[in-house]
Each structure stands twice: as structure tokens, then as C-alpha cells.
Specification:
The chain is of the alpha/beta class and 435 residues long. It is 38% helix and 22% strand. It folds into three domains: 62-141 and 176-366, P-loop containing nucleotide triphosphate hydrolases (Rossmann fold), CATH 3.40.50; 144-175, no CATH class; 368-427, RecA protein, C-terminal domain (Rec A Protein, domain 2, 2-Layer Sandwich). It is built from 14 helices and 15 strands.
Length: 435
Amino acid sequence: MPKVKVNKGTAPKKAKTAEKAEKAAAAPAKKGNAAIMAFINEINKNSHFKGVAQVQLASEMHTNYLLRRPTGILSVDLALGGGFHAGGTTEVHGAESVGKTHLVFRAAGEVQKNYGDDTNILILATEMRPDKGFARKSGFCVPYAELEIEEYDRLRMARGMPTFTAVELDDLRFSIGNVVVISAATGDIGLDAVIKGLESGIFQMIIEESLGALLTPQQDEKDTGDKTVGGTASIITMYQNKVYPLLIMDRADGSLNETTIIGVGQARADIGGMSRHGPSEKSSTGSFAAKHSQMSNVRLSKGQNIIHPTTKKVRGREIHWNLTKGKAGTHDGKRGTYSYYHMTREDPVFWSKVQQGYSADDFQGIDTMNDAVEAAKDLGVIQVSGSWCTWHDLRVQGLDNLAVEIATLETENPDIRKQLVDECMAASGIMVRYR
């Protein structure tokens, strides 16, 4: 193949006046840079500041805002700019029985999907020990303890059921990565343990369940009914003051702390705010004290019941979500609704069964697929013409039927949901990574 000769030519000489102008413009900048670097070096090398303050040029400071922890609920993740922030704190807030823990466990399960055996999750339990069956049905794989397995086995045999098979035992012991639980006598001791976990930098997610139940040392020393001074808000404030530097300063090796801290906060009944619908809601003291440190805050509230079309029984309810605070890639005011179907009680819960999913008539938990196709339709990723819905080679009548079709295909091709999510993120202009 003949070579194409390129005529490079000669570069025109710069006029002397232009060269002088460039040198004149560069001189003050060099002087300024030298002064800036002297300032930076003085602070970083000064023994008074060393290790407790960090100064660097913005051009050298990197952030981890592209790294997110998704909830698996596409509409919520789009509003959050991809998911909960890495290297930041967030709160899932709302009244009792609105699905706060379920949402947080879903996010923990997404971490397990993205990190696999490298997953490390820390849970601060202040009210009760995590319900492992509920966690598993929420998509968060937590292993059963040997004593739990033995107790379940005895109960099964007492009811005339066979003992666990080797496969079932492996399932009950199965875990994805490591889940560590902190229990403490008082809130300050528990939060100090959380600080140690944050300092280690080994956890992708820390769950604080829940903020309003943190007991202070003063409260611990009093009898029931005694008034105390120095409540939950004070220890949350002190805790947050310790968290800030761990999240904003580079680690010793120059890396950033990528831990996502999620607090579960309750909305209490405000008896002083009674209306014809009953008492209004107000934040618990722990939640209120933590609000200034949050990168995002997702508030959940109950909507109307979901009624089974045949049995006419309540199957679940609509859950309204509202992003009341959002930074670094999102903003407050975004809101939406997803469907939550009641989960039946099973003891124990086999992870393999959770992975199989549920039929349309027996669907449990958050309907993430219907949520995803609704979001994709709004973004134009799924085209709708009359009753026909089209996504690539799939063409189905009705958005609900398209959701069922994609969910069915997902059993054979687990990446199909990821493809839909990726296309929606791209259509929204969101740049994000999950590991």
C-alpha cells in the first residue's frame, strides 16, 4: 500500500511582541504558584497541623462522588444520582412500618452484588438484632448461626419434618462477604466502635439501625421515668464531628474513605400537632442532630393499599419517597412512588429460594421491575405507541406485561436488568460506577 506523504511544513515564527506578552503574563503566575506552594508546604509540614489538617491544590484533590451504592430501585437511584454516596452519610427516614429497614437491606444486598466475596458491611444494632430471614427476603444475604440452625432443625423434627439436608445446611450458612454486627450498652460506646470501623476503611457500608434509639450514658444511669440532661442529640453531634475528618481527609496511603454510612431515622408522632387525621409527624432527636452531615435524606411515607383483584385482600401498599436533601450530583425535591407487597413469614429463609424470585401472584417486597420500566418509559428508553411498548427486540402490549417479560428473561440472562439500568443512567446523563 503506498505511503501518503505528509508535508509538515515549517512553523511560523512568533512575533517578538507576542513572546514578550506571554512571558509577562506568565511571570506573576509563577510568583503566585511559588507562594501557594510555600503556604501548602508550611501547613502540611508544621507539627501543629500534621495529621490533623490537609492542604492541597484543587487540581490535585480527587473526590469519590462517582462511586455510589444503589438501592436497586431505579427511580430512587436516578434521583440520587446513581445511589447513596460513597464516602458520605445518608438517612432513610419515616414513620414506623413504612419499609425503612427493607430499603436499607436492599441497598446492602446491592453492595453484595457489586463486590461479591469482597463485601464488608457493618451494622450498629441499637433496637434489636437484625432479622436474618427478613434480611434475606430483602435481598441481603446474612448467614444463620450454628445455634440458630440447630434450633430450627429441632423444631422441624418435632413437627415430623425431615432434618436439614447437606444442601440446605450449606444454604443457611451461605454468606456473601462479611457482615459484622455491633451491640453496645450505650450509644456513645456503639458509635465509637463505628468510628473504629470507619477508620479501618474496610467497610463499603455502615448501617446505623437506628438513630433515635441511641441510649446516652446519662440515660443509662437513671431509673425509668427519671429526667436526664444530655440526650441522644448530643452524642450524635459529637459522633458526627469525629466522622467529618475521616470522610473528607485523604487516608495515610493517599486513598479516600469510600464507606457509605446509612442511618435509619424514625418520625415520631407529634401530639401537639393533632389534626383530623391524627397526630402529625416530627423527626426523632437523633435524626434532627444528624441532618447537617448528610449527603442525602430519603423520606418514606405510606400511600394507599394495594388490593388483590380476586381475593380483595390487602397485598401491600404504595410507598411515597421524597428526597428532602441532596448534594453532589442530586438535589432535594425529587419524589416518586413504588409498590411494596407484604412478605410472608418463613423460618428459616433459604437464599436459593430468594434468588428464584416470585410469581406475579405471589410477588413480595418492592416491585423493582415495574419501577424500572416506568422510569425507562419516562426517559424514552422504552418507546410507547398506543398500548405497545418496545425495548430493543421486545415488543409487548402493556407496560406491566413488558415488566413481566423482562423479569422472565432475567432468570436466564441476569445482565438484562443491568442493561436497562445502564441505558437509563446514560439517558439521564448520570455518570456513575458501583465498585
